[in-house]
Amino acid sequence: MSKGVLVDLTKCVGCGSCTVACKLWNKNDWDENPSIGPTAKLTDKNWTVVQFKEVKDKQGEPVWRFIKQQCFHCKEPACVSACFAKAFQKTKEGPVIYYPHLCVGCRYCMVACPFNVPKYEWEKPFPLVTKCMMCDTKVQKGEAPACVSVCPADVFKFGDREALLKEAKATISKDPKYVKHIYGEEEVGGTEWMYLSDVPFEQLGFKTNLTKRSLPSYTEAYMHATPFVGVAWGVILTGLYHYTKRRNQIAKDKDKNIKA
Amino acid sequence: MQNQQEVQEKQKQFTRRGFLKMMGGIGLTGITATVAGCSTDPAGGKGWLPQQYQVASTFSTQVKGRIPIDPTNPSITRDDRKCILCGQCVEVCQRVQTVFGYYELPIKNDITCVNCGQCTLWCPTAAITERDDIDKVVAALENKDIHVVVQTAPATRVGLGEEFGMAPGTFVEGKQVSALKKLGFNAVFDTNFSADLTIFEEGTELIKRISGDIHEPLPQFTSCSPGWVKFCEYYYPDLLPHMSTCKSPQQMLGALIKTYYAKEKGIQPEKIFSVSIMPCTAKKFESARPEMNSAGKHAGKPELRDVDVVLTTRELARLIKSKGIDLNSLGDEKYDTLMGESTGAGLIFGATGGVMEAAIRSAYFLITKQDPPEALLNLTPIRGLQGCKEASVDIPGVGTIKVAVVHGLSNARPILEAVRKKEAPWQFIEFMCCPGGCISGGGQPRTSLPPSDDVRQARINSLYNADAHIYAKRKSYENQEVLALYEKFMDNPNSHLAHELLHTHYTDRGKQLTVKRNNA
Amino acid sequence: MASHAQAQRWSFKITPTRILLMLLSAIAVGVIVFRLVTGLGMVTNLTDEWPWGLWIGFDVLCGVALAGGGYGTALIVHVLHKDYFHPIARSAMLTSLIGYLLVMAGLFLDIGQWFNFWRPFVSWGHSSVLFEVFWCVSCYTTVQILEFGEIATERIGTKYHDIFKKALPVLMIVGIIFPTLHQSSLGGLYLLMVDKLYPLWWSPIIFLFFLLSSFFVGPAMICVETTLAGRAYDHWIPIPILRKLIRISGYVMIFYLVLKIYDLISRGVFGLVFSGTFEANMFLIEIIFGIIVPIVICFSGFSATRNGLFTFGLLVSCGVVLNRMNVVVIGMMSSTGVSYIPSIWEFIVSAGLVAMGVLAYCFIVENFKILDHNHGHTA
Fold first, then answer.
1. Is the terminal CB of chain C with fewer CB neighbours within 10 Å at N or C?
2. Rounded to 5 degrees, what angle do the CA atoms A160, A166, A169 make?
C-alpha cells in the first residue's frame, strides 16, 4: 500500500513554509529563483514551490490561489521507465527517488515527465538531475514529508493513498465549493500526490489534457517485443543470406553451363 | 654564468612541472570529487528540520509553520534564508493578535495582516523584519533642495537607548533630538504635540457624542493605533461608526507639517519631505493609506503624501549607527518650536491606558472649565499590563463616565463582541494593537523572546515618570503651541479645517476576508 | 618498386575547403573541451524547458538516420546478394561508420556525467527504450568497426585480413539487426511523450516511421554522397545503379506516406494537417518536399539524370533531417511554452563534427580501397 498526500488548495494561504522545509531538509541552496510568488517555478534547487495566481472564483470575483508544486510521484512513473541506468526508481512506499551515482545525465527523464518535474543543474560542470524525493527516508520511518509536516493551514493530508482517495471523494461530494475532480486520481495512471481545488484546475496551471493511461504502458509492449523481433529478424536475415547466395550460385553455374 | 643558467633552467623546469602538477591536480580532484563524492544513497534528505517535525504519524504538532506575508506588504518583509520554521510568528499572530487563523479558507484576494509587526519581535532569527526604508530618508537628506522634517513618537524615546546598550526604558528624548539634528533633519517635531492636539479633537468629539451633537454611537473607540484600526476594519466593520474620526497623531502632524508649518515657514509643501520615527510597523501602512493626503489635497496637489516615510525605532538606530554617531555621547537638545512643545499627557500616549488618561484630564477641563483633581493625574486603574482595564470617572455636570482600556488584539475581541451585542457599559474605549501599547510596538527594539513584560513595564514606568517628574505640564490644554495652532490656523477643535486636515474615514475590509464566526 | 613505395605512403590532399573544415574542427574541439570542463549551461542554450536540443536532434537523431544507409546497403548487397549494387557498398558503409562515430561523440558531449557513460552497461534500466538504443548503437558501432577491419586489413595488419573476411557474413547480419532495432527505438523514445509531442508527429507507431525513414534515406544519402565524391574524385557510379537503388526508396516512401495518412486518420487528427498552425505548416513542408516531390522525381524521367538523382537525394535527406528536428524541437514547442534557439556554440560543435566526418571520409577514401576504380569513368 503506497503512501500519498492529498493537497487541498482551498486551504493554502501562501506562507511558503513547505518550500522552506524542503530547502532545510534537502540542504538545497537559495538562489535568485523565488520559491513562492507569481514567478516561482521548480528548478534544480527548488524541489517544491508555491506558485501564486490571481483567478476568478465561481462568482466571478478575483481570488488569490496558491499552487504547491512538486513531483507528483506517479504510480507508474515515466521517468523510471525512461531511465536507462535505473537512476530513477519507484519505492514500494510511494516516493519516486533518484540515485545520483547511477545517472548518466541524458535528460530523457526530463523530456519524458508529463509534468516537467525533473530539473537539471545547468550551471554545474558535472550536472545531475534533481527533483522532489517526497522525503523518502522520512516516509520509510512513517513520518510525513518535510513540506507536509510544517504546514500551518492543514493543506495536506498524508497517509495511504487509497484511504486519502476515499476521503477526497467524500469531501468533493459533500462540499459544493470543490471542483468535482481529484487531480492525480487518474492522470497518467494515477499519482501519489492528489489535489482538490475550488477553481478549475486548468486555471491554476495544471495540465488537464493528460492521458489516463500509465505512460510506461506505451513502451512496455514495444520493449517486450524487441528481443523477439531481434531474434526473428536475425533468423530471417540468415535464411535470406543463404538462400540468395545459393540462388546466385545456381544462376552462375547455369550461366557457366550455358556458356560451356 | 653557466651556473646561473642552470639554475634558471631548473626554475623553468620546476615551474613547468609545477604547472603540469597543478593541472593534473585540478583534473584529479575534479574526478575524485565527482566519483568519490557520489555515495550510493538516493538524493535529498541530507539536511535538518526542527525537532517538532520529526515525528512519525500524522498527529499535528502545536507550534508549526509560519505566517503568510504578502510580498507587497508595506510594513513587514521576510528573508526566507533565515526562516527556521520555529512557528513563533504563527503563535503571536494567531494567539496574541488573533489575526491568522481567524478567517475562513479559502482566502479571497488579500493576505490578512494588520501590519502590527509583532512577528518581527518574536522571530528568533530576525527573518521577519520591518520593510527597510532608510535609503529613502538618506536620499532625501542628501538632496539639498528638499526640506526634511521629522517627528518622533512618544514611545521611541524610551526604546531607542536600548539599541545603544542602555537599560530598558532609558529616557533619551534629548539625545534622540540631538541625533536627528546631527543626521541633518531640517526640523525636528514631537508627535507628543499632535497627541495633545488629538486630545482636543477626540475629546471634543467624545463630548459631542455624549451630548448628542454628533449622531454617532457610543462607546467611542480611539483611533491612534493603525493596527487596531485595520483589525476593526477587517473583523468588526459593523462597529466602525464607533471609531473616532480623528487621525492618529502621526497623520495629524504630517498634515500640519505640509500646511501649517509650510505656511509659517514659507516653504512649498512639495519641497517638504516628511519623515516620522515610530515604534510601529503599522504606521508604514497607515501613511500609505490612499486617503492620507489631506495636506496635498488642501494645496491642490493630491499626489503629495502627508507623511512620506516612516522609520521604526530600529531603523532609526541603524541610521544613527551607520553615520557613526554614538547616542550615549550626545547631549540633550530640544525639539523645534511651532510643533515641538508637549505635555505629559501627550507623552503617555505611548503606554497602554495613556490615551485614555490624557483624554480624561482634558475632558474634565473642557467640561468643567476646572483643572482635574490630583487623582485623575494618576489614574492607576487603567495603567499597567493587565489585558483589559476599566475605570469610572465622575465629572461634575456629566456624571459618571465609564471607560475601558484594551491592548493586544486578543483582548479586544470580547470587548468588541460586547459592544456588538449592545452590552457594553462604557462611553469610551482605548484600543492599542500591541500588548503594552506603543512602547512595545512592532518597530521597537527587540527584547527576549517572547517579548518581555519586564521590558514593557520598564518602558511604561519611564513614560509615567517623565509625565510626573520631567515634563512641566501634564495636561494637553496647557500646550501653548496647540492653543496657538487653533488661534492662528484652525479656529477651534472640530472646525471645518480641523475636519479637513485632522479627521479621516475608514474602509470596510469585511469583503476582503471571510471572518470565522465560532472562535471569536 | 617505386610505385609500391608510393602506395604505402599515407596521402592527404590539402585544399582550401579542407583547410576551412580543419579550422572549423579545431574551433569545435576547443568548444568541446570547454563544455566538458564547464558543463552545459555556459555553452548551450538548453534549459529545463528544453533539455534536448540541437545536439540530440541533429547530431544524434539525424546522424543515426543519415548514417542508416549502411545497414540498408548491407541488407541489399550482402544479405540479399544483389551484387548489382556492389560498387556502392563500401562507401555507403564507410559513411555509416563515420556517421555513427560522430553520433557517439555527439551523445558523449550531451550527457552531463560523461565519465559515467558506461553505467547502463552494468545498471540495466531495461524498461527504457533508450536502454535498447544505447546497447544497439554501442554494439553496432563495434560491429561497424570490425566490418571496416576487413577493409583496413587490406592495408594495415594484413595478416588478420582472412579472419575478418571469414567473419564478415556474421558481422553483416548482426550489423543489420542492431540498426533495425535502434532506428525504430529512436522513434520509440517518443512513445512516452504522448501528451507533449504534437499529434502530427506523436503516434503509437512512431517507431515504424523512424525505421522506414531511416531505410529510405539510405539510398538518398548515397545519391548525395556519390555525387559529391564523384565530383571530388571523378568517380561516377553508373546512373542505372543509382536509379534502381532509389526505386527501392521510392516504394518504401509510398508505403510510408500511405501509412502516415492512415495513422493520422485513424487517430482523428488528420484535420490538424491543414489547420494552418506553425506545426501544421512544418509538417506539410516535411511531407511535401521530403516525401511527395521525391516520390514524383523517383518515378519520373528526371531521376535518369545526375541532377535528378542529386535533387532526390538532397530533398529526402533534408526531409528526414526536418522530420527529426520537428520531433525534437518544433513538435515540443506548444507543450513547453517557450522557444529554443540553439546557441552559436551548439551550431559550431554540430558543424565541427560534420567537418571532422568529411575530413575522415576524405582521408580514408584516399588511403583505402573504398571507391572501386574498376567501375570508374564509365558514366
1. N
2. 135
Residue C376 pLDDT more than 50? no
pLDDT at B56 over 90: no
Rounded CA-CA distance A128/A106 in Å is: 10
Residue at A116: amino acid letter: N
Query: Does C181 contact chain A (CB < 8 Å)?
Result: yes
Partners of chain C (3+ Cβ pairs below 8 A): A, B
The CATH number corresponding to A3-204 among 3.30.70.20, 3.90.1150.10, 3.40.30.10, 3.40.50.10540 equals 3.30.70.20
In this prediction, residue C91 carries a pLDDT of 82
The whole-number pLDDT of residue B5 equals 55
Smallest CA–CA distance, residue B47 to chain A, in Å, is: 4
Beta bridge partners of B56: A143
pLDDT digits over C312-332, tens only?
A: 999 999 999 999 999 999 999
pLDDT at B139 over 50: yes
pLDDT at res. B150: 98
pLDDT at A212: 95
pLDDT at residue B222 tops 60: yes
Contacts of B32 in chain C (CB under 8 A): none
Active site residue B224: yes
Nearest to C306 by CA among C220, C239, C258: C239
Note whether C123 contacts B: Cβ–Cβ < 8 A. no
CA distance linking residue B433 with residue B440, whole number of Å = 10
Which amino acid belongs to residue B241?
A: P
Residue numbers in chain A where pLDDT is lower than 70: 258-260
A64-68, B401-405, C221-225, C308-312: least confident range = C221-225
Q: CA C335 → CA A108, A195, C332, distances in Å?
A: 16, 22, 6
Over 80: is that where the pLDDT of C218 sits? yes
Contacts of C132 in chain A (CB under 8 A): 223, 226
Angstrom distance (rounded) from CA B283 to CA B230: 11
**Chain position carrying cell 571520409:** C361
CA distances from B307 to B148, B255, B284, C219 (A): 11, 8, 9, 81
Catalytic residue among B244, B274, B287, B462: B244
Domain ranges of chain A: 3-204, 220-260
Query: Amino acid letter at A96?
Result: V
Among the listed residues B490, B482, B478, the one whose alpha carbon sits nearest the alpha carbon of residue B263: B490
Catalytic: B216?
no
Angle at B463 between CA B434 and CA B169, to 5 degrees: 80
Quick one: pLDDT at residue B16?
Answer: 54
Grid coordinates given for B479: 500646550
- Give the cell for residue B423: 452590552
Q: Indicate if B516 belongs to the active site.
A: no
- Chain B CB contacts of C113 under 8 Å are 34
Model pLDDT for residues C65-116, shown as the tens digit of each residue: 888 778 888 888 888 888 788 878 888 888 889 989 998 999 899 999 999 9
The ipTM estimated for the assembled molecules is 0.89
State the nearest Cα–Cα gap between B144 and chain C, in angstroms: 47
How far does B13 lie from chain C, in Å, by closest CA? 26
Q: Give the largest Cα separation in chain C, rounded.
A: 72
Q: pLDDT at residue B332 above 90? A: yes
Residues 100-139 of A with CB under 8 A from C: 101-108, 110-112, 114, 116, 119-128
- C60, C191, C206, C338: best to mutate for the A interface, most A CBs within 10 A: C191
- A91 in Cβ contact with C131 (< 8 Å): no
Task: Name which of A217, A128, A110 is nearest C119 in CA terms.
Answer: A128
Annotated catalytic residue B283? yes
Specify the pLDDT at position B22.
55
What does the CA dihedral C26, C30, C35, C37 come to, rounded to 10 degrees? 140
Shortest alpha-carbon distance between residue A194 and chain C (Å):
19
